[in-house]
Design goal:
Layout (H helix, E strand, L loop, with lengths): L25 E3 L6 E5 L9 H11 L4
Antiparallel strand pairs: 1-2
Length: 63
C-alpha cells in the first residue's frame, strides 16, 4: 500500500463519528441506553464504546 492510500479508502462502511463531549451530559447509547462519549446535543446514532466495538466486529470486512 502506498503512503497516500489509507485504510479508509478501502472501507465501504460509513466511519463518520460525532465529536467527543468535553463533559456531561452525555448522549445515551441507542442500543443499550448506557452513557456514550458523545454530547447529549448530538443528533444522530450514538453508541457506547461496547456497542461501537460490537458493531465494528459485526460489520468488519472478512476478506
Amino acid at each position: 500500500m502506498s503512503d497516500d492510500v489509507t485504510d479508509r479508502d478501502y472501507c465501504l462502511v460509513g466511519t463518520d463519528r460525532p465529536p467527543k463531549a468535553d463533559g456531561p451530559p452525555y448522549a445515551a447509547c441507542v442500543q443499550c441506553q448506557e452513557p456514550t462519549e458523545y454530547p447529549e446535543a448530538y443528533r444522530g446514532i450514538t453508541l457506547c464504546p461496547v456497542c461501537e466495538w460490537r458493531e465494528a466486529e459485526r460489520t468488519a470486512c472478512s476478506g
